[in-house]
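Feature request disguised as a bug report, sorry. It would help if multi-protein outputs had a clear separator. Right now it looks like this:
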Amino acid sequence: MEGTTNLIVGLTGGMGCGKSTAAAMFAERGFRRLDADQTVRDELLPNPAVAAAIRAHLGPDMLAADGSVRRDKVAEVVFRDAAALAWLEELLHPRLLERWREVFAQSQGTAFIVEVPLLFEKGLENWFDFTVCVTTDSALQLRRLEQRGIPPELARQRLAKQLPLARKCELADHVLLNDGTPDFLREQVKALADRLLNNKPDRSAGPLHVSPP
């Protein structure tokens, strides 16, 4: 993002690829971690104005008795209704970007790792100095989602809303492979984090697949 002295790295990948695991490993290397989904869940959805807009547009069933947003009900609606999903994103994304601006401005000189599932889908590349995609085998991806309690059909439905992993890897500056052990991923993150912190690599050469030293 222009106008800051921070190092801001955007982290993306498909559902079940291990974005959160990789983000935590970047945090181990000294990066400050931000999670777009967590910000929406913990800061934006509890906002009374946001909750009121969701109730007005999607119906009273979207709110619990205490007035909080029922995320499961909202997800049921938006993942089967493209127009509802587009409306919800239009409601939340400007608020999310504004929140990022505030955090970046308050923490000059900080290295950030920002977890953004729809980084490329929403054209957010210019917010980041570098982008990283975590990828994995598609069968392993579905198994991980099933282990989280997401039925295969629902997992495929949600994955269909995202760019194919191969395309995300093409667009990213760096690619991390999460097909092996946690230590294998950690060594890749360590190598990349150290390079980004110590001497920013040239992003003009295309995607870089990082292998452990």
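(second protein starts here, but nothing in the output says so)
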Amino acid sequence: MTNAAPFEVYAIKYAEREARRGDHFIGGDPHDAPMDMDYFIWALVRDGKVWVVDTGFDVLDAERRNRRLVRTVREGLALIGIESHDVEDVIITHLHYDHIGGHAHFPKARFHLQDSEMSYATGRQMTRPAISHAYTADHIADLVHHVFQGRVEFHDGEAELEPGLSVHHVGGHTQGLQVVRVWTQVGWIVLASDASHYYENMEADRPFVIVWNQGEMLDAFRTMRRLADDPDCIVPGHDPKVFDRYPSPQGQKGMVVRLDVMPSRG
């Protein structure tokens, strides 16, 4: 419980790709069925202040990685009346290409990042293609420039960014992955980002295939259940089912959902 005013919270889809169930679970899956992936960023709005969580990717990464970009991050934020060029604070959950690749849309922003993620993305592990393939070197180099420009704020573990908003290091998927806890009109919700790509990863304790530390990924599921007031209010990072469980603003079905309401399992 907190005395802070609640945030409005939005998930905005900017890209998609076709995939199969076996792509998303360590050890594969016995059912060779489609399980597509959506790509989101998130916006938190309160009293005229906007926080954005992650920056998506742009055309070049879409072409290189065979992803379908359905709108730029700037266009996605404009759907809910936010101008990306005016945003002053962006939380980066981790530095994979689909979470930092659109950083240029935020020229005024300060980026909030875990110490351990920057160390990971610029250290010896990036010499290993099995780990580095989800990173784009140019994005990391750009972020280093932002460090020297005073535009990166580092966090070590858990940090309150303002009343009703905090980040929590969980690791697992990457060494420095952080999740975001947000106070809303329905209590505390958690934006999992890639701590759980799909509802099924966390609900069935079945880790995603890209993983730095499998034990930490499983621990992250438990941590998020502790941080959220209701386990149904943990929002995965890439699951199209988000559109089934949450309402969309009028005229924005399949593009935007409102997350500061109780989800439906119907």
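Even a blank line would do. Unrelated, but nice: The mean pLDDT is 97.
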